[in-house]
Write a structure and sequence with these properties.
The protein has 321 residues and is mostly helical. The chain contains 16 helices and 2 strands. It has one domain: Farnesyl Diphosphate Synthase (Orthogonal Bundle), CATH 1.10.600.10. Helix 2 runs antiparallel to helix 16 and helix 11 packs across helix 12. It binds farnesyl diphosphate (FPP) and magnesium ion.
Length: 321
């Protein structure tokens, strides 16, 4: 995912340099010294999305880079909070901030970093800061819905609404702002929908990786969702299936009653989801969802830049980390 054209690499390097500059403005005592809690990009998915979208819209790379800086800051802040919510130990192959500094510091640093995102968005325009505040609110609503769904049987529509908020919102904001910087108001609605589809399908693939990925490649704790009672699409598909619903429901009940640290029911449920093809089916659904963006990107003005954007969208669901 770190590959791309030299122009994209140059833009990503500028985004990373800007994040490092912003991180360099923090008092190191706030994060225990060492490496600042943001600055280095992971997959840079939101940045690459902004850059490739700008190319296909005929917009300036510099405008997309400014949008990307805000998106990466908001994303980093959300992961600091998410890792506290999930009690995650590993992120990008390293101990999480909550593991290194404790939950309190990680929550507070997440607050600090999201305030930096608003500040950078305000420098684009007051309206950009306002819309980022709206999007962060919807992300939090998604995260709260996910909390309320733990160990519950939720419908596919409830689940899709939740991931569209939790993960789709920041991709949607990124797309809308990139469209704005490209001066293409007639394509705002199409961009918003492409962003939502990109984010939701990214999350579907992420949930499959929780069940399938090698932790050495993903850099995250394995079986985190399933062991925490999070409902994901493979679980919903198993519960919808006549043959699998009985054993899946029994394992979910066992999981809800299991003492903390007992990974047995989670491992058995994960095995069922993989062996009976529900992770593969969820990946296919992610693929179909992201492809719904293609009729929209086909209308973009710079036709020769659309294949790279479409290829990037597909890579969001075909990744192994
Ligand atoms: C990853 O979910 C988390 C998100 C996509 C966003 C979560 C949003 C919040 C915690 C709201 C707070 C937002 C801000 C900006 C302060 P995951 O657990 O499914 O993914 P993972 O496997 O990468 O942990
Ligand atoms: Mg998480």
């Amino acid at each position: 995912m770190r590959t791309g054209s030299p122009a994209t690499a140059g833009s990503v390097a500028r985004i990373e340099a800007e994040l490092a500059r912003i991180a360099g403005g923090l008092d190191p005592r706030l994060y225990g010294g060492g490496v600042p809690p943001f600055g280095a990009l992971g997959k840079a998915s939101r940045s690459r999305f902004a850059l490739l979208l700008a190319d296909a819209l005929g917009g300036p790379r510099r405008g997309a880079e400014r949008v990307a800086v805000c998106a990466e800051l908001a994303h980093s802040a959300s992961l600091m909070h998410d890792d506290c919510v999930d009690l995650a130990l590993l992120r990008r192959g390293r101990p999480t901030l909550n593991e290194r500094l404790g939950i309190n510091a990680s929550i507070l640093l997440g607050d600090l970093v999201v305030s930096l995102a608003f500040d950078e968005a305000w420098k684009i325009s007051p309206g950009s800061a306002r819309s980022l505040a709206d999007s962060v609110r919807r992300m939090v609503q998604g995260a709260l819905l996910e909390e309320s769904y733990r160990h519950r049987r939720v419908s596919r529509d409830e689940f899709l609404e939740m991931i569209s908020l939790k993960t789709g919102e920041l991709f949607r904001w990124t797309a809308v702002e990139t469209c704005g910087s490209a001066g293409r108001p007639e394509l705002l609605e199409a961009c918003a929908e492409i962003g939502r589809l990109a984010g939701a399908s990214f999350q579907l693939a992420d949930d499959v990786l929780d069940l399938e990925a090698d932790p050495a490649v993903s850099g995250k704790d394995p079986l985190k969702d399933v062991s925490e009672g999070k409902i994901t699409l493979p679980v919903i598909l198993a519960l919808e299936d006549a043959a699998a619903s009985g054993p899946a429901a029994a394992l979910l009940d066992e999981l809800a009653a299991a003492p903390p640290g007992d990974l047995g029911p989670a491992m058995r449920l994960a095995a069922l989801l993989r062996e009976r093809g529900f992770t593969a089916a969820a990946r296919d659904e992610a693929d179909a969802l992201v492809r719904r963006a293609f009729p929209l990107t086909a209308k973009f003005p710079v036709r020769e830049a659309v294949p790279a954007l479409d290829g990037f969208l597909l890579s969001l669901v075909r990744r192994d980390a």
